[in-house]
Amino acid sequence: QVQLVESGGGLVQPGGSLKLSCAASGFTFNDYTIGWFRQAPGKGREGVSCITKNAISTYYTDSVKGRFTISRDNAKNTVYLQMNSLKPEDTAVYYCAATPSIRIAYVCSKAEMNYWGKGTLVTVSS
Fold first, then answer.
1. CA torsion sign, 81 to 86 to 90 to 91?
2. How deeply is 42 buried, as exposed, middle or buried, from its count of CB atoms within 10 A (0-12, 13-18, 19+)?
3. Is the C or the N end of the chain the one with fewer CB within 10 Å?
4. 81 pairs with which residues across the strands?
5. Among residues 89, 90, 120, 107, which one has the least CA distance to residue 22?
6. Helices in the chain by DSSP H: which ranges?
7. pLDDT of 35-54, one tens digit each?
């Protein structure tokens, strides 16, 4: 069955870095756009960053541009999110998700994905 398993979350001080990983199985990974989404306490789910199947196109929400970098390794069925210069407002549960759509800006901003992981918690606090 389809599985998306996030890892790499944890507690980090403001200004620090974390790298999240999303390991996928059960579908043809190379044919899917993969995205990272987050949900902070009391808030809705937000599209953070997405990457198309061939990594030609990426999307970032404005608040993370210049700080976060998404990448993928199709040989390992894995997508990464490098997060630098973390801020307290980045605190959230981070989810990995997949869709066959290549409308990257639309699916990422609307969180319209077909498959979802269970999430990993990122806490930015001193």
1. positive
2. exposed
3. N
4. 20, 70
5. 120
6. 104-110
7. 999 999 999 999 999 999 99
